Amino acid sequence: MNDDSKRGWPLWEVFVRARRGLAHQHVGSLHAPDGAMAVRNARDVYTRRGEGVSIWVVPSAAIVANNPDEKDSFFDPAADKVYRHPTFYDVPEGAKHL
Amino acid sequence: MYGNYDTGTAGGSDGPQDQDAQQRFDQLIAADQRIEPRDWMPDAYRKTLIRQIAQHAHSEIIGMQPEGNWITRAPSLRRKAILIAKVQDEAGHGLYLYCAAETLGIDREELLDLLHAGKQKYSSIFNYPTLNWADVGAIGWLVDGAAIMNQVPLCRCSYGPYARAMVRICKEESFHQRQGFEILHTLARGTPDQKAMAQDAVNRYWWPSLMMFGPPDEESSHSAQSSAWGIKRFSNDELRQRFVDMTVAQAEVLGLTVPDEDLRWNAERGHYDFGAVDWDEFARVIRGDGPCNAERLHRRRQAHDDGAWVREAAQAYADKHADKHASQQQVRAS
């Protein structure tokens, strides 16, 4: 976080819950000196038209992601397992509620 | 969400190992898929996007000035509240766009420095003055109308964060255009003086609005490459024509005219023919000789400097808080 003083404020990722019953969704990012200010700024930047009932902010630096260069091999294990999908199976005629 | 983003490895270079990456990039573009921040991308693509998104972001925040000038003089509390909300939206649009630019590995601070030093541009339209209240209407109707025409295709731009920012912006812009139209509609149905005021504003903002689509296709230097990359979806002239066709019909509803003696409906083409845009004026304003270039930049730098103490205070509070938080945690740990 040291070079943040040169760069200005740290970056925060903003997640908004549109309404009760839905998960928080990533809507964008913003700069703020601390978490409390990030939440207030997120309200002004991302919910000016009642887009949310709850806001999360997460320091961008805290997010760990997979390497996009390894994307193919990383997700490969899921590619050849068609039997995980219900459409893989033939359902005999007459079998109901299956 | 662009975790552990590293400009050192994500940046494009031209080494032989990048040929696979280039091929993958080309395939994504050809399949009309989106490019995301941590994908490999050619340096020129990155630079073009930074230039375009930064210019767009700068336009949003400089665009707060001509209308902001009228907040204290709005003719009613209703108009004033609406104008404040609109100018606040422009600030928000600037923030969405600066964040999109930052995913390309450049800092907002750096972009603001470039703007303040006059090294990056903003839309030439904001170098025209707002002389009276009707100008606020003309800006909403014509300037925001032209902006929407330019921006809707950008919602499908090949760069994901830019496209997503544009989706948000376009949703909000339509309020801007309607409020401008309403202002002019009210004035056009008012006293003869009020109607003349509305007509005068349209007369002054019409041609600069047509310039917002950029130079004619044969002179547009970045167009071909931007189209190939899926950044640009329609040519400058195509969008300008669409804008004229749409706006002339709306002017009729307003009972106002557009200041172009050559304007004719061309039944064969199914479009309006319109007069020549003064591209010398466009070049002059872009070069810095517009009516308000110096004033706009001066005001922007001043606002930035005047706000320094707020940024410093917020930082000092955050630092103090962080120290307290850290010492509390130490106490708990021991």
> Which whole number gives the mean pLDDT of chain B?
91
Q: Report low-confidence residues of chain A grouped into runs of 5 or more.
A: 1-6
- Helix count from the secondary structure assignment of chain A: 3
Overall number of strands of chain B: 2
Overall mean pLDDT of chain A: 88
* SSE pattern of chain B: HHHHHHHHHHHEEHHH
Strand count, sense and closure of the main sheet of chain A? 3 strands, antiparallel
Q: Please summarize the sheet with the most strands of chain B.
A: 2 strands, antiparallel
- Class per helix and strand makeup of chain B: mainly alpha
Give me the Rg of chain A, rounded: 21 Å
Q: Could you give the distance between the termini of chain B? A: 35 Å
Residue ranges of chain B: pLDDT <50 for 5 or more in a row? 1-13
Q: How many distinct beta strands of chain A?
A: 3
Share in β-strands of chain A: 15-25%
H/E series of chain A: HEEHEH
Largest interface: A-B, 24 and 32 residues
Strand order of the largest sheet of chain A: 2-1-3
Task: Indicate the structural class of chain A.
Answer: alpha+beta
Question: What features would you describe in this structure?
Answer:
Chain A has 98 residues and is of the alpha+beta class. Chain A is built from three helices and three strands. Chain A has a three-stranded antiparallel beta sheet with strand order 2-1-3, covered by helices on one side. The longest helix of chain A is centred in the middle third of the chain and has 12 residues. The N and C termini of chain A lie far apart (55 Å). The N terminus of chain A is likely disordered. With 334 residues, chain B is mostly helical. Chain B has a two-stranded antiparallel sheet. In chain B, strand 1 and strand 2 form a beta hairpin. Chain B is globular, with a radius of gyration of 23 Å. At the A-B interface, strand 2 and helix 2 of A face helix 5, helix 8 and helix 14 of B.
